[in-house]
Amino acid sequence: MTTTALPTADDLQAQARSALERCGVDLDLLTGEQTSHSPINGETLANLSWTSADEVDACVARARDAFAIWRDTPAPARGALVRRLGALLMEHKADIATLVSLEVGKITSEALGEVQEMIDVCDFAVGLSRQLYGRTMPSERPGHRLMETWHPLGVVGVISAFNFPVAVWSWNTAIALVCGDPVVWKPSETAPLSALACNAVLQQAIAEAAAPANLSQVVIGGADVGQRLVDHQDVALISATGSTRMGQAVGQRVAARFGRCLLELGGNNAAIVTPSADLDLTVRGIVFAAAGTAGQRCTTMRRVIVHESVLDDLAKRLTSVYERLPIGDPTTDGTLVGPLIGGSAYQAMTAALGQAQDEGGKVLVGGERQLADAASDAYYVQPAVVQMPQQTQIVTRETFAPVLYLIPYTDLDEALSLNNAVPQGLSSSIFTEDQAEAERFMSAAGSDCGLVNVNIGTSGAEIGGAFGGEKETGGGRESGSDAWRTYMRRATNTVNYSGELPLAQGVDFSV
Ligand code: UN1
């Protein structure tokens, strides 16, 4: 099922301009040599000029000046700024969601959800601003106190990807700001307008709070701009979201200068479907996780490891739901699958489906391009389900498109090892009514991922938990729980109030 007409370039450009204007972006910025496109119709959305790599140095210098002021501002006062940011994001929720839809093709409900995720992390960060707890430990020496203190870290460089063009910035920025750190943001070059809108909204909150304007800066540009940020000695933490290849390069460069890195890279997320699973719920969970966001979340479900006794039933049910998925203009009511980000995603999907078939797979549904007549530079596809004889090579790779592989298993140990037998380690699920199976999946010998779910899909995590994964996913944790610690430095303090000088470990050094 597809919609037939797509909006015109004039229509999308007008929507973008009015959303930007309401968010406080200076429309004079919309001129320059760089053209950005909307995946909705493949046509020009805006022109902009990019930041040069040399300008990054000046941004980082300004951020360092802001840091000197912000680190001395009490954490609860820093929280008040983030509270205002959350309130302003609420006011501009629809505008920012519109920009996200126009720039990356998310359906309205998911785009609004992304902005809600930003508001949620602001709430979390405000509470955190009174809870940046350090521990006290018993000292082995009489009359001594041993404790730790958490201090602001320094300038944080955020590099974000197209698929969560604003939420990932907020996870980093809301937490960084309460932790006392300024942020320099390099958004995806695909989503500069959403970034300008977020920055304008934060600038309003900063101005109202009389906080330093350079707590938040955006550098729009290509790989050279990102690299300058990554290599900059004065950027204390680089938080980068994107491909494993990008993360490998960034991780090595930051390590070479002893900087700190937080990496959120690829996922190849699986669900195990056991014989006891409630298949109605399972199908709903799988379809949202696999076809939602047109398969372009890092948490997208890409593999279903299904017990052979339920394979046929599950395959039939999935095929019939996939055949009915409403594909088309993401801003139209009722659409569930918007466009891919561009032609290379479509080519990657086609290549993966070809390789899967070479490796013995059978495409049960999907893979066809849609709406090519309506817009030859927009890439809409029918999400695909492929039944594989086993977990072949293509299945172990992340293809950033809606391709779901079904792989049969016979016993749970085998399913667990299939779950873990990929290089990535972000998210995972089990669908089961058997508590022992669920517990084994969550145990030390179970899923090796950072996110391990029971009876829900792999995507759509809340901000309260720490978000991230292991192995090629990069090991970083963002958002909730104690992820804030990455944005601060720890000092261990030993205070002697005894009037004597006993040495630790009983060392005698009397002179
Ligand atoms: C991503 O795809 O980069 O859990 C992040 C989820 C979202 C975040 C995804 N909360 O699917």
From TrEMBL:
Keywords (A to Z) from UniProt: NAD, Oxidoreductase
Pfam families, per the entry: Aldedh (PF00171)
Residues that span the membrane, as ranges: none
Keyword check for Oxidoreductase: yes
EC number assigned by the record: 1.2.1.3
Listed InterPro entries: Ald_DH/histidinol_DH, Ald_DH_C, Ald_DH_CS_GLU, Ald_DH_N, Aldehyde_DH_dom, ALDH7A1-like
Aldehyde dehydrogenase domain boundaries: 35-490
Coiled-coil region(s): none
Active site: 264
Alphabetized GO MF terms: aldehyde dehydrogenase (NAD+) activity
Keyword Plastid set for record: no
Subunit annotation: Homotetramer.
Family: Belongs to the aldehyde dehydrogenase family.
Name of protein: aldehyde dehydrogenase (NAD(+))
Natural source organism: Leekyejoonella antrihumi
